[in-house]
Amino acid sequence: MYDQNKVDDFFYRSEELIGKVDKEEAFTIITKEIEDCEDQYFNEYITVLNLIRNDKVLDWIEINIHRTVNIGQNWGHLAASSYLSWNRAEKWLTAGRPLCLVALDGIMFCTTVGERLNQSLWMREIQPKLIDNPKPEIVATRLQKHLQIDNTHRTKATINKIIENLFDARQ
């Protein structure tokens, strides 16, 4: 049975920990607890890692993505919050599912500018960007190539949004 209080308690304790110790130590302690949590809480617990804002989280995603079947946008949100690079995103695109879904959502969050509909307050505050700042044409070309491999509705919609973001940002 799902217990929202358990999730709330984890968030509270994690936020408190992040305020008391350095981010490296907080990362170690929090990821250990996430790795030990019951599967039903896994997708919610990972949200706390947004507060760590460290590219170590990207390595952690690669190792732990297998624990979930449904890849929600929260994974891409986490990648964007953790200094996603185009180099890593491209690697994840090449790796296929589930990492390519995380890459696409992460790129979408990193290319969103201004206050867009349904953008979280967190993303508005940190305004993540792909840290190696690729040219929009390079990203768009690679994403079009990815559509030849995966042309599901979700993938098409996300790629269309990214391309719209890339070229809107230049205005």
List keywords for this structure.
171 residues; mainly alpha; 2 domains; 10 helices; globular
Mean pLDDT equals 94
Strand count, sense and closure of the main sheet? none
Radius of gyration: 16 Å
> What is the terminal separation in angstroms?
50 Å
Q: Strand content of the residues, in percent?
A: under 5%
Number of strands: 0
- Helix-strand topology string: HHHHHHHHHH
Describe the global form.
globular
The secondary-structure class comes to: mainly alpha
Kindly report the oligomeric state of this protein: single chain
Low-pLDDT parts are none
Number of domains: 2
Q: What is the helix tally?
A: 10
Helix content: 55-70%
Commentary on this structure:
The chain is an all-alpha fold and 171 residues long. The protein folds into 2 domains: 1-52; 72-171, no CATH class. 66% of the residues lie in helices and 0% in strands. It has 10 helices and no strands. Helix 7 runs parallel beside helix 10 and helix 9 (136-147) runs antiparallel to helix 10. The longest helix is centred in the first third of the chain and has 17 residues, at 4-20. The N and C termini lie far apart (50 Å).
Please write out the topology.
Layout: H1 4-20, H2 23-36, H3 39-45, H4 56-64, H5 73-81, H6 86-95, H7 99-111, H8 121-126, H9 136-147, H10 153-168
Helix pairs in contact: 5-7, 6-7, 7-10, 9-10
Short description:
The protein has 171 residues and is mainly alpha-helical.
